[in-house]
Automatic annotation (TrEMBL):
<dbReference type="GO" id="GO:0004497">
    <property type="term" value="F:monooxygenase activity"/>
</dbReference>
<dbReference type="GO" id="GO:0005506">
    <property type="term" value="F:iron ion binding"/>
</dbReference>
<dbReference type="GO" id="GO:0016705">
    <property type="term" value="F:oxidoreductase activity, acting on paired donors, with incorporation or reduction of molecular oxygen"/>
</dbReference>
<protein>
    <submittedName>
        <fullName>Cytochrome P450</fullName>
    </submittedName>
</protein>
<feature type="region of interest" description="Disordered">
    <location>
        <begin position="438"/>
        <end position="460"/>
    </location>
</feature>
<comment type="similarity">
    <text>Belongs to the cytochrome P450 family.</text>
</comment>
<dbReference type="InterPro" id="IPR036396">
    <property type="entry name" value="Cyt_P450_sf"/>
</dbReference>
<dbReference type="GO" id="GO:0020037">
    <property type="term" value="F:heme binding"/>
</dbReference>
<dbReference type="InterPro" id="IPR002397">
    <property type="entry name" value="Cyt_P450_B"/>
</dbReference>
Length: 469
């Protein structure tokens, strides 16, 4: 791949003769080193059009698909753009080291996301059937239960970081239980699952830890099945192997947790900082589902999806793609493609044509679960703590970016402590937060706990509280 002129890691054209940060010698952008993803994507779009050459870890070449139409074409044409990573020429030519942080994301595994055709239908069918047993009403009970448990842990102090204390642990508490894990495992798995998508040097180790926990879970569920995803996959008529069951549990755990963490964090940031949003919401013109949809347009939980592999030489977006080339689907850039959204300031309420959940045969099968967790969790949180305000100026909210995702660093807030924290049913009075994962193997899962039989009367809806203020 060659480039007419280089683009720096923040998306700006560097001065002549000045080496740009994050640049390889041939002038391509290194994705792991970009500091301003949105600016970088627009710089790439201006220079190359809807498909741009980039570099991954180890200066391995790839194509970044930036255009909305081009992303849809790749997503909907598996015969030309396969999910089977064994086609990647970098693998075939032994250019990917064994310790590469790319491997947890792109190394072939017996997963529906690495299969096409009949094999994809067999594996995906088992996952879809397993997830379908969780209805929205039942999900709401558990999200409400864990939201109150979390608030009981940090609420007495009248201050919290909504990313660390809420957005990160809540999805894992819920999703780990849906998989069939015991209550103590959720907090321990938060950090490893987040680490998997950072592309860090510890990504492979984190992947190994999560996999071991799930292997132990499957071994236990084979002798003590329950109403959970692990048991459903084990018993499914598709006859998944133990390895296939473990890998699909890992996929569900990581994707559901990471995606929902980012969705909650970005939506809470919007609620706390955007005056137009709060005004519209309190006036009844915008609902929380509208806000979630807007976030999925503007800040998709997974900004870049690796990947697709060309099954033959082809052309897309004006670029010649060789057989075996890797394509990175840049959802964040596609959702703001000027051809699709000439004015990004126009609200996208009621429009679900964004690509935050992908499209085509590999569209995310658990998108409704993540949306339900975020919707219920934010609504319940704001009902319990209706007077939450930022504890720092808006300009001091940093953004954590990596090659696949972006989200707020922290959301420090102040609030009036709830009058009766005991009514929120804390777990032994202790806060639930992300913990380092111990080396010990997972203990067997226990039956799914029932939410409190008598839930305290719920405060009035938080947008009505905003209106009254």
């Amino acid at each position: 791949m060659t480039t007419p002129s280089p683009i720096s890691a923040d998306g700006l054209m560097p001065p002549p003769g000045c080496p740009a940060h994050g640049m390889a010698q041939n002038g391509l952008v290194r994705l792991p080193e970009i500091t301003d993803p949105a600016r970088t994507y627009e710089g790439l779009r201006k220079q190359y059009g809807p498909v741009a050459p980039v570099l991954l870890h180890g200066d391995i070449e790839a194509w970044m698909v930036l255009g909305y139409r081009e992303n849809l074409e790749v997503m909907r044409t598996p015969k030309l753009f396969s999910r089977d990573s064994r086609l990647w020429n970098a693998f075939i030519e032994n250019r990917v080291p064994a310790d590469s942080p790319l491997l947890p994301m792109v190394a072939w595994q017996p997963l529906c996301v690495f299969a096409d055709g009949e094999e994809h239908a067999r594996l995906r069918g088992a996952v879809v059937d397993g997830l379908s047993q969780f209805n929205r009403r039942g999900m709401r009970k558990y999200v409400t239960h864990y939201t109150r448990q979390l608030v009981a842990g940090f609420g007495a102090g009248g201050a919290a970081d909504l990313v660390r204390n809420y957005a990160e642990p809540l999805p894992m508490l819920v999703v780990s239980r849906l998989l069939g894990m015991s209550p103590d495992k959720g907090p321990l798995l938060v950090e490893p699952t987040l680490d998997l998508l950072r592309g860090s040097e510890t990504a492979a180790a984190s992947n190994a830890v999560v996999t071991q926990v799930l292997q132990d879970l499957v071994a236990y569920k084979k002798t003590a099945p329950g109403d959970d995803l692990a048991s459903r996959l084990i018993q499914h008529e598709s006859q998944l192997t133990d390895t296939e069951v473990v890998e699909h549990l890992r996929l569900t755990l990581v994707a559901a947790h990471q995606g929902t963490v980012n969705l909650i964090a970005h939506t809470l940031r919007l609620i706390l900082t955007d005056r137009r949003f709060r005004g519209n919401l309190s006036g009844g013109h915008m609902t929380l589902p509208d806000a979630l949809e807007q976030v999925m347009w503007d800040n998709p939980s997974i900004g870049t999806i690796p990947g697709r592999w060309a099954t033959s030489d082809t052309t897309i977006g004006g670029q010649h793609i060789r057989k075996g080339d890797l394509l990175m689907l840049c959802i964040a850039a596609a959702n703001v493609d000027p051809e699709q959204r000439p004015d990004v300031s126009v609200p996208m309420h009621g429009n679900r044509s964004h690509l935050a959940l992908s499209a085509g045969p590999h569209e995310c099968p658990g998108g409704d679960i993540g949306r339900a967790i975020a919707d219920t969790g934010i609504d319940e949180l704001m009902s319990i703590l209706p007077d939450m305000t930022l504890a720092v100026p808006e300009t001091e909210i940093g953004i954590t970016s990596n090659w696949l995702t972006t989200r707020p660093d922290a959301l420090p807030v102040r609030f009036t402590p709830p009058r009766s924290l005991g009514d929120l049913h804390p777990a032994q009075g202790a806060p639930v937060a992300a913990q380092p994962l111990p080396a010990a193997a997972a203990s067997p899962a226990v039956p799914f706990p029932q939410p409190p039989a008598a839930v305290p009367a719920r405060p009035r809806s938080w947008w009505r509280s905003l209106l009254s203020r």
